[in-house]
Every structure is written in structure tokens, then in C-alpha cells.
Write a structure and sequence with these properties.
Blueprint lengths: L3 E6 L3 H13 L2 E6 L17 E3 L6 H14 L8 E2 L3 E4 L4 H15 L4 E3 L3 H6 L16 E3 L3 E3 L1 H14 L3 E3 L4 E6 L5 E6 L4 E3 L2 E4 L5 H4 L5 H4 L1 E11 L2 H7 L4 E4 L4 E3 L7 E6 L4 E2 L1 E2 L9 E2 L16 H14 L10 E9 L6 E5 L2 E8 L9 H13 L4 H6 L19 E2 L18
Parallel strand pairs: 1-2, 1-13, 2-9, 5-15, 13-23, 18-24
Antiparallel strand pairs: 3-8, 4-8, 5-7, 6-7, 10-11, 11-12, 14-17, 14-21, 15-16, 16-17, 19-20, 22-23
Length: 433
Amino acid sequence: MSRKQVVIIGAGAFGLSTAWHLLKTGRYDVTVLERSPEGLAVDAASTDLNKIVRSDYSDMFYARLATEAIAEWRKPEWKGTYHESGVVVLGDDSATGAYSDASFENCRELGCRVEPLTDGSAIAGIFPSGIVTGHIKSTNVYINRDGGWAAASEAVEVVAENVRALGGTIINDAKVKTLHKDESGKVDGVILGSGKVMTADLVVAASGSWTPSLLPEYGAAQRMIATGQSVATIQLTANEAERYRTTPVVLDFASGWYGFPPNKDNVMKVAVHHAGYTNPQESSIPGIAPISTPRTAVDGGTPGTAIAKAMVLELRQKLKEIYPELGNKPFNYTRMCWYTDTPDSDWIFDFHPEHPKLLFATGGSGHAFKFLPILGLFALGRLEGTLDAETAGRFAWSKTAGKLDMSRVGQEAKLLVVDDLAGPADLEVIDIA
């Protein structure tokens, strides 16, 4: 039996994990198209210093999947890209506090090494000796030792190496202009910006936050939206990095703020998981409303990595609250990390209802990277009809939105305004009382 020809749009987490799992079956020939001139989706959400790897979900469906993914992360094939530092979860008495409570109970039921931190002494005890922590409220606080962080870009490169080793092809500077249709009007390939047509037995749209603006005529903008999230880093001295190296990941569900231990280059990243920013742009398709589109350096955004001044202040204030010694250090880099948000934060692994050769693998909603080792299994399962009913329903293209994402409840995205973006001076040392 001849192998099916598969073209995947996007060399990010969804695209590469899908390619890898398809190739492992031996039943598919896979070509991955990446618009970046070089590298692997250099402005994708997956191309990052690090991502949290956690099983802390109020929804047991994702908590269980995350424990499966963590078991994979621990295997040697990931070449040490996963660091099990533990994750400290901070909640409060709001709806996000209920999220952390439910997360704790789910993790405990799954056998994770979770421990409630009921007072200041218990909280201080999980940080290395000599690390000064600020006032961390002890309501809804716990540590999950079965979690940590992954060196994101390095992990994606591991998957890319696996794809190539299995005979897959990754083509750079291959910007998809639109999808190609056969004589009956059904999708059967892609048309590149160069005019080249590539036909296939299956097209996988794994184009992340560019999916709504790339495929508006297929209803993608009604199913998902691109939102920009704010990231900043600080460069620690060698001495500082050594002291903070073994700190856990800190995740504050109340504010959305989270911070990592320093990486091998002594860089500490902080970010906010919230409703984010939208960047509406006119669609190339007449009659379609403006679509939120990522604004990145690759797309010519100037400055392409800037975040809002308000977010610089928010990131710094929370950093000082958690680690007072570091709160006034300058940020040396910022970035807008573009999510592909669905209404209920469920991912999409499904065929387009009118195009049987078009499979969507997207909708990460800011929480998919931790599942990198197993993400592609859902695309494979949908393709071959082996997903169980609950999973297929969760990831369906046509469905009524499920439960609200309680980690971002009550939030609304803001409009990205270029004049409000931070410049170099805004990243310098600021004395915050």
C-alpha cells in the first residue's frame, strides 16, 4: 500500500508533533512547510526559552493527559530538555482560587506529589536557602513536585530531528498563500507565495495564531482568535543564577503571572497568562471583518518584540512581590507570545466539515506546549478514527463551547496600540516601592 502524502502548514509544536507521530506509523510521507526563512517557526509561541510543564488543571481531562505527557518528558529521548523543578501554585479566594483548589484535588487523585503550603514557613521552606521571597499569601497555595519546565526551543528541535530522521521534510521560506482546490472545489493542497502548487492526500493546518488570518474563508476566524501575551526576561549574574537555579516554577492563577528558574544562560523569564491583546487587521477576503493577527518581527512589526508599557510595570511589580531582590533589575528582552485562543480553551483536532482533506491541528489556547510529546497523537487519532468519543468531542471543529477557562475567567482582551508599546528606556531599572 502506498503511503499517503501529507502537507503540514507550520513547524511549531502542533505541526512537528503531528509530523512525528504520523511518520512513526510508517504510513505517511510528510512535508512540513515553515514560513520563516530559517529555523523552526522563529516567532511561534513554541519558540521560547521555556514553558511550564504541569498537571495542575481544574479539568480532570487535561490533568490526566498532562500526567501522561510528563511521563514522556522524563524519557531520555527528550535529551534533558525537561527540568523537574516543581511548580508552586498560588491561588486566592476568587474564581481562580477555586481553579487552584480543583487542580490540587485532581493532582492528588492522579497520584502526583502535591503538598499544601499552609503558612509562611512552609512556603519559605520550598525555596533554596538564602532566597528572599516576598509576601506570598498562604491561601490556596501548594507545590506539585511532579512538574517543572521545558526548554521550549530545544525541545522543538528534538522533535524536528526526529521528523528528519524518519524521512520527513521540513521546508523553510515556504509561506502558504492559500489552499488549493480540486475541480470539485474541495481542498487538495496548498499554494505558496511563490505560486508553487503542492497537492496532497491531506493538508494539516497547524499554523497556530496565524490560522484565523490565513484561512478566513474556511471559518477559522469564527473558531479561534490570536491574542498576544506579554513575556520579559532578566539577565542574572553568575552568582544570582547559582542561588536561584533550583527555585521552583511559580504560577499565580490569581494574576496570571508566572516565573521560571534561570536557564543555562542565566536568564530568568517572567510572563502573564491572561486575556491578552488583539491586533485586528483587514482581511484579504472581501466582506470578512478585521481579524486579530500576530504582530512579530518576522512580519515586519517595529519594534516586533515590544510589549505594552502597562505590562512591563505589571510584570515587574509581581516579580518584586515574589523575589524582592530581583524586582528592580532591568528587563533585557520582551516578547509578545501569540496564543491561538478558542472560546473554551479546548484544542482543535478535526476535519473541516466541507473539506475532507483539510485537518485542523491548532487552538493551543496558551496551554498546549506541555503536551508536546503526545500532541500529534490526537491528530493521528482523528485522521484514523481512533479517538474515543470524549476526546473527539472535545477537539471537534463544530461544537458548542464547553466550560469557561477558569484560569482566565472574567477577563477581556485589550486592543494592541503601537503607541503604548514599551521602548528601551521602559525596560531599565525602575524603583517600585
